[in-house]
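[recover] target loaded
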């Protein structure tokens, strides 16, 4: 499996605090079945602003530890949505995934940003592919999962967290991710792992529930085939999404 979203780079955001924690998380990832990991520390203006070249020095140390246990690691960022997102990448303040055309970004956890579409357009106009992190965690997506249909039409891809399917973020997130997965609105899975004894230790449970929900072939697509496209910087083919129907008791699977 390939993890395209995690916070293993130490002392740069709210993830790993030191190289020791990073080493332990790498071992957990290996045990969970990951062979490749894209390191995606937060980049958020006024909060987490460590530039790419400084992160690269830490990544080199992480690569040594990862190689020793049979994991390949790559550099990237999870970038908080901003009108300056393309400029940040051009200036090497932030980075696409493995320096590819694929850009991982996140939105506000509170309310839908008024500039969300503009951020997406700017990424697309720069010839890059926007990947929105964990849409199931956004309250406005929980209220209306079909918001993602217009974004997919624009060219946005979506990454969900392994922890969502097992209730790590609560019932609403769990129910929403089920809807998104069964309606072909999710294209990648990622750990979003921040610390030891966390998501990596529960991946087996997540995989079991995911396979029951979407089947082994689709699961392979989300955990390996599509993430491999990112690492290799290739074009991706996606399955046509379906609208989530709403009944008298809410949205239905």
């Amino acid at each position: 499996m390939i993890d395209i979203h995690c916070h293993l780079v130490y002392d740069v955001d709210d993830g790993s605090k030191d190289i020791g924690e990073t080493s332990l998380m790498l071992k957990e990832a290996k045990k969970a079945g990951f062979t490749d990991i894209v390191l995606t520390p937060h980049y958020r203006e006024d909060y987490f602003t460590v530039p790419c070249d400084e992160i690269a020095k830490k990544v080199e140390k992480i690569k040594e530890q990862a190689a020793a246990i049979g994991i390949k690691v790559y550099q990237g960022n999870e970038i908080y949505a901003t009108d300056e997102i393309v400029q940040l990448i051009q200036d090497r303040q932030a980075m696409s995934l493995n320096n590819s055309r694929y850009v991982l970004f996140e939105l506000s956890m509170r309310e839908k940003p008024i500039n969300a579409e503009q951020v997406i357009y700017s990424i697309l106009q720069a010839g890059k592919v926007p990947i929105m992190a964990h849409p199931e965690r956004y309250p406005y997506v929980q209220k209306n999962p079909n918001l993602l249909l217009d974004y997919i039409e624009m060219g946005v891809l979506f990454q969900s967290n392994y922890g969502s399917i097992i209730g790590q973020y609560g019932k609403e997130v769990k129910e929403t991710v089920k809807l998104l997965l069964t309606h072909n609105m999710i294209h990648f899975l990622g750990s979003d792992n921040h610390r030891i004894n966390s998501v990596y230790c529960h991946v087996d449970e997540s995989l079991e529930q995911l396979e029951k929900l979407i089947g082994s072939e689709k699961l392979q697509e989300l955990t390996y085939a599509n993430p491999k496209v990112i690492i290799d910087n290739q074009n991706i083919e996606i399955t046509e999404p379906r609208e989530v129907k709403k009944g008298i008791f809410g949205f239905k699977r």
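[recover] notes: Residues 24 and 73 are 15 Å apart (CA to CA).
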